[in-house]
């Protein structure tokens, strides 16, 4: 602990990176920067890599600092800087503490993982003494809920700023697991060199201090928000923030020389000082291949042998069937004639699955449409009667369509809570055709299900580990024990990143932070990721499965349409149609491999571009064999009840469907179990046997199951969110901090 504390900000370690986060619109960040710059015997240099930032060198204390300011409304900048920051300095308002934008920012930072932090309150001296005491008590009460046992530092004089710096330098550093095992850096300077083929793509030279782990040139780097890239070279230029006094003496001697000689020698010295640490080896360099290119001929069979042909003929004779055909029909034509029980075709379209699986919700939507049609004439009459010259009402009415859609979602969520997984049996399509992809299970917990059965084509594009936990332990053991060759922690280096789009440099010039993370082996490859998340208490809108969400997983962010499933210890997990507010759920998506531990934040984009935090959690596993089962429940009602027999209707509407689903076990809402005995008539009535006498108000249920897979909707490009709208009133929210 002492060695780590002494190396941070010292001559041999990287500068102490402090990120200032104003949590209120009235928080005086400029006054804080001015006070921090006014330290005795300190050298202040403006930061080229970030507007509003500066570097503080204290030779007397043998410390060097880098201060960077991030606005609480710029969510991506705050989260990206918090990924690499050594300390966060929250700037509070002396009266209110933080506003709604600050509350949203704190919620995201707590979920992502909070490094070491300090609380500073500049200002407040202009208030009367009595009001100053009341404001201090109110602020202490608000801080106690969010930051228990945290000390608040007033920041109005140079002495108070010195105490704050001493606290930042000596406090215990909090570790974030996903960054401690990977090399990372925050760019101090960047230069873009376009390639010969195109000016839109080129080599990006990024300079900064290496943090976390040793950086290997043969590994891949991930530029946060832009993607994965290869490196071609790593240089070691002179440290611009050196505390070595000999550098100062050399500069003084060079100033005494003539101007012409000084300029020439200076450029020569700079060229000589830039050392090439290492160049990438094509044989050892990690590949950028993220997907497997499936071979369509891989599953082709060879020509069968004579023995296989004879076996096939014997099996055909054994399985021959008698079919009534018209006179004059050949054997070839007769082979194409099917029985009534064999009708139906396989539909592989995912969109059809969504239509097939939501019969109950279609009925609800039809009711909603019919009610809307009844209400339309009244709305038209109201519009003809009212005459308004105010544009505010017209703008308000534009939100009515969104409100109707939200009302429909609330109805669907409520129906799913009251009648989980229940659907109506269609009247126009036979149930054996409509539910042909489903199967019955004797027991959802103990019945077997092959994880390699009927896999989709997307599974041919992903990578899978034979033993993921063993591979993860082996990699982490190598990081802890073996010393990899490369740029050590604390070195000031320049990375040559290849084939980078020019948009990365444009983003850096606009003032956004440029953060790089080195990838562990296999972390650029696609697989199936499972996240364990909890619904955030500040969000109450219904979130349906397969809706597009924005993921912040560790150092990555991407868009995808996930599946929700229950978190159990069994080998099969039931699909959830909505994100439940009262239980932990597992979110499944196609995404690049990431080795846990890693935090995850789920956002939903509004129509106006703002991002709402809907769930937080952590990475559970990388496992394509995790079986997510969708359940359908068909319901029927007892028509005639005997001792242990009952006649059930309204579950099916023809005799063939009753015979088709006869092997599936029945259950009731009051705990009875039974099976179908025989059909009665031709309209779907059936005689059923149960383990006890039914009640007249009981409902007979039949469960059907099907395995579902996520959709391949992975998109690494996430649009910048609209800044959060600030408001004074903030409700306290209880949250769990990620470590």
Q: CATH topology of the domain at 1-170, what is it called?
A: Rossmann fold
CATH level 1 class label of the domain at 1-170: Alpha Beta
As a percent range, the share of helical residues equals 25-40%
Structural class by secondary-structure content? alpha+beta
Alpha plus pi helix count = 19
Overall pLDDT metric:
79
Please tell me the CATH architecture of the domain at 1-170 by its name. Answer: 3-Layer(aba) Sandwich
β-sheet strand percentage = 25-35%
Q: Trace the largest sheet across and list its strands.
A: 2-3-4-1-5-6-7
Number of E-state strands: 31
Q: What distance separates the N and C termini?
A: 18 Å
Task: Please summarize the sheet with the most strands.
Answer: 7 strands, mixed
User: What's the CATH superfamily of the domain at 1-170, by name?
Assistant: P-loop containing nucleotide triphosphate hydrolases
Q: Uncertain runs with pLDDT below 50, 5 residues or more?
A: 245-272, 341-352, 359-391, 729-734
Main location: nucleus
Region (Disordered): 246-314, 334-393
InterPro entries: AARP2CN (IPR012948), Bms1/Tsr1 (IPR039761), BMS1_TSR1_C (IPR007034), G_Bms1/Tsr1_dom (IPR030387)
Family: Belongs to the TRAFAC class translation factor GTPase superfamily. Bms1-like GTPase family. TSR1 subfamily.
Word description of this protein:
With 739 residues, the chain is α+β, with helices and mostly antiparallel strands. 28% of the residues lie in helices and 26% in strands. It has 19 helices and 31 strands. The strands form 4 sheets. A 7-stranded mixed beta sheet has the order 2-3-4-1-5-6-7, with helices on both faces. Helix 4 links the parallel strand 5 and strand 6. The longest helix has 27 residues, at 359-385. It starts with a helix and ends in a 32-residue tail after the last strand.
